[in-house]
Amino acid sequence: MTTVHQPETAPVTDYKTRATPVLEARSLTKHFFTGSALSRRVVKAVQNASFTLYKGRVTALVGESGSGKSTIVRMLARLYEPTSGEVIFDGRNTLEYTSRKSLMHYRSKVQMIFQDPFSSLNPVHKIKYTLERPLRLYGDEIGIRGRAAIQEQVLNLLRRVSLSPVEEIAGKYPHQLSGGQRQRVAMARALAVEPEVILADEPVSMLDVSIRMGILNLMAKLRDEQGIAFLYVTHDLASARYFADEILVMYAGYIVEGAASEDLIQNPKHPYTQLLLSAVPDPSRGLRTADVEIKGEIPSLGALGNGCPFAARCPHVMDICRKAMPPVTTLEGSRWTRCYLYE
Amino acid sequence: MTTTQRSWAKTRTTESGTTEPLLMVRDLEVEYRTKRAIVRAVDHVSFDVFPNEVLGLAGESGCGKSTIAHAVTRILKPPAYITGGKVMFNGIDLLAMDEDNLRGFRWEHLAIVFQSAMNALNPVMTIGNQIIDAIQAHMPVSKRDARTRALELLNTVGIDPRRIDSYPHQLSGGMRQRAVIAIALALNPELIIMDEPTTALDVVVQKQILYEVQQLKDQFGFSIIFITHDLSLLVEISDRIAIMYAGEIVEVAPSQELFRNPKHPYTQRLMNSFPSISGPKQVLAGIPGSPPDLSEPPTGCRFHPRCHVKIAGLCEEVHPALLEVAPNHSAACHLLDPEVAP
Q1: Share of chain A above pLDDT 70, in %
Q2: Which numeric CATH code is attached to B1-50+59-90+227-275+284-342?
Q3: Is residue B286 within 8 angstroms of chain A, CB to CB?
Q4: Nearest Cβ partner for A281 among B233, B284, B288
């Protein structure tokens, strides 16, 4: 644990050039069943989602609310059982992990940060307690044993997320901290078990705008210095461009496009990505010059047909789009999309 | 701080042609009085809204922007009290008006659209009946005429008029927000205050609604106070922007001027907190620290604890006045005061 305080001296590993897969989703699908036995409705929340998270890289999952982003996160965190598909970690399908011990091991490697720092910390316990808990539970796994070592590690964790003065913060209750400080505590709690992957579900969208960058920059530092793989879930394409190395775009349960961030922003391929980009507020562009005729809204996930879910709003729609979901088409570089225009 | 030390946010007309403001707010003060503390959420705030203008009000949560909206429309509830200042609407003093007159005045001249359309609509009433209610409460018209007007309004805000008998839960979030806008438009008000009207919506729907609001404004000639924390959005939609920090207005300027040439250190740092979707990628620092607790606001300039260019010995002590630093552009910072930093 002494190494974490001297990241400046640690060699900058070439995470960017050498892709080391950590966690892989293979054809993840989640259907929710609602209604009574006689009139059963199926809500197809996520369909056939496949992607890989790499060491020291941030993958952003971008989409509108209800597009299935959080469902994917919950499947990866093993909070939801997928209807089908695999989650590969360490070369094994983690859905086969059934024992408490193997699940605990998995969860120590794959941690989560939630949107709301006001409800994700227990209000009746001091910050110290919140950070000691994972250390007690996982102490054997990460080699931290004994009271003194745990207490020292709590302070280390607070330093790693740039909260100071550490002793004072450790003795506070969540309500005595600001939103940004609370989100840093949530991050410290996630880091406590030395994870390889952090699933961050809208980690800054509830924070004040002036402190969002501080949190994103902190996560970027953890990515670069410790090689943590991040899945960054957001509805904000501009922050995804800022923070992520790769962006996946979701629409109505499908990931419709995936590309390196700049490629996706500069040259979006899927008509939905193009629509989403044109809708992002851009002061240098101005609203009045908006020439986009945008119609309709995201369809109900309980009433999806067989075709592409974007067909009803797509300016390039063809007959085939309404009949079947387009397969994945690989384009130049490592980018891909699901659209018949590129078939 | 005495009022004489502060200048009013001086503004002149934009493209609308007239110089007479529709709404004049002067030295408005609002306090939240609880047992524990008195919090002055809005402190000597002055601004104008001109006919057919969109004034953007930006700031972080807790800076007092929503409190201003509630104070101007006189819908503040205890423990919040207006403790000083003037709100003049077309020459009428809104703070002196009694409840009965206010009720008539509000929807006819001045309407408000809240952030959460889910809570603003009555869940057990069809949207049509809610619009008809608003019309009939203010105008002696038959239900049939009011319904005809409701159909028109739905069409105006881009809802299929056949949905008039739908209940709020049968509509999407975007449609509900459009319905709320339709109710706000029902009596052709001169000013609509929109308090984070699209924050709960997705960007695509947000763009649709803002585009339509813009069209409606040009068509009907009303003014808008648009409140949001999203500066990129505000620059797009507003004619002028007022930046708030810790209960005060710290900078006012035409929106493109504010975007290209922000003067106040807070505005500059705030601009540097929004990643952009176009142009070169930059490292953004945000602003260290967090907004202050208004029950104990910092002395002197309220931004000084987070300011990277503060003048030691001055900014902690003396409150800076809002001064005109360029034509139509005011800011409250000692660095911009020629007497302090020539």
Answers
A1: 91
A2: 3.40.50.300
A3: yes
A4: B233
Residue A7 has pLDDT above 50, yes or no: no
Q: Indicate the residue type of A338.
A: R
Token representation of residue A261: 């961030």
CA atoms of B113 and B175, how far apart (whole Å):
14
Domains assigned to chain A: 3-11+20-281+292-342 (3.40.50.300)
Residue B10 has pLDDT above 90, yes or no: no
Instruction: Determine the residue among A208, A262, A272, A274 to mutate to test chain B binding: the one whose Cβ has the most chain B Cβ atoms within 10 Å.
Output: A208
**B290 in contact with A, Cβ within 8 Å:** yes
The SS3 call for residue B87 is: strand
Q: How many residues in total does chain B contain?
A: 342
Backbone phi, then psi, for B98, in 5-degree steps? -85, 165
Q: Give the strand pairing for B54-58 and B223-228.
A: parallel
Chain A contacts of B196, Cβ < 8 Å?
A: none
Give the 3-state secondary structure percentages of chain A, helix then strand then coil, rounded to 5. Answer: 35, 20, 45
Whether residues B203 and A262 touch (CB distance < 8 A) is answered with: no
Whether B309 and B265 have beta carbons less than 8 Å apart is answered as yes
Best residue in B14, B159, B201, B207 for a mutation probing chain A (most A CBs within 10 Å): B207
Domain residue spans of chain B: 1-50+59-90+227-275+284-342
Question: In A, which residues are within 8 Å of B198 by CB distance?
Answer: none
Mean pLDDT of all residues in chain B? 87
Q: E strands along A108-264, which residues?
A: 110-113, 197-201, 229-234, 246-251, 254-260
